[in-house]
Amino acid sequence: MSGKRKVNKTALVSLLILILLIAGFSGFYLYVQVKTYPAAEEQLALVYENPALLIMEESDLIKVTPDAVNSEQPAIIFYPGGLVAPQAYLYKMGKLAEALQTEVYIVKPPFNAAIFSVNAAARIIADSQLEKVWVGGHSLGGIAAARYTAKNMELVDVLFLFGSYSDRDLIEFQGQVLSIMGLNDQIINRDNYETAKANLPLQTVIIEKEGLNHSDFGNYGLQDGDSPGILPNEDVIEDILSAFEGEIH
């Protein structure tokens, strides 16, 4: 009889643990959904209405293909910022795809945290049979992109960081690194940003733009704690394009 009670007690404890785990996961999932910044509807509509772009959304990525694709231009893999909907980057990355005539892959990470999908680029490269790529991201997404690059230097032509930094040593990286930082950015940890410059190779180009804030790299409104942006949306796109076309060789 005592053995049966022990079994029942063990089963009850296991059930309670399972319930707590499910409740904890559900609570975390709801928190992520509530805290995630959604894409601005106006810019999102413009992307889907653009006849020059084909948007294909899958469970773990969004692929943007322009009408004209230059086979010599490496594809772009982009990691979104933390707790920002990946769709919030479609407008600006779509403009980049058109201007550079290349395909853009936007990662859709679990819980909208790119740090959980550092190796997403590897899957995209394998599935799409890409030979060389430009990899980058915004904020936490930039950190994820830098971590991927640090472990796969031979596969990356260009690493680009928007309002971000590398927390991994990239001194031996032979590709180009482009870092764009807004001087109105009130979100990034400035001490970490300055310290992390030591992780970047000599060929890194750093652009620090007056009037640009942290939220300007996407289209999801003003992030809590950020400085109000003073640059029109199209000016931000032009600055990004100019940096890519002028600094990446």
Commentary on this structure:
There is one protein chain. With 249 residues, the chain is α/β, with parallel strands linked by helices. The chain is built from 7 helices and 8 strands; from the N terminus they run ααβββαβαβαββαβα. It has helices at 2-35, 41-49, 90-100, 120-128, 140-151, 190-196, 233-247, and strands at residues 53-57, 61-66, 75-79, 104-107, 133-138, 156-162, 176-182, 205-209. The protein has an 8-stranded mixed beta sheet, sandwiched between helices. β5, α5 and β6 (156-162) form a beta-alpha-beta unit. α3 packs across α7 (233-247). The model is unreliable at 20-34 (pLDDT under 50).
Helical amount? 25-40%
**Span between termini:** 78 Å
Number of domains: 1
Order of helices and strands: HHEEEHEHEHEEHEH
- Count of helical stretches: 7
Structural class: alpha/beta
Q: Give the percentage of residues in beta strands.
A: 15-25%
The major pleated sheet works out as:
8 strands, mixed
Number of strands: 8
CATH architecture type: 3-Layer(aba) Sandwich
Based on Cα principal axes, name the global outline. globular
Radius of gyration from the CA trace?
A: 21 Å
CATH homology superfamily name: Alpha/Beta hydrolase fold, catalytic domain
Low-confidence stretches at least 5 residues in length (pLDDT < 50)? 20-34
Overall pLDDT score: 89
CATH topology: Rossmann fold
CATH class term = Alpha Beta
Q: Order of strands in the sheet with the most strands?
A: 1-2-4-3-5-6-7-8
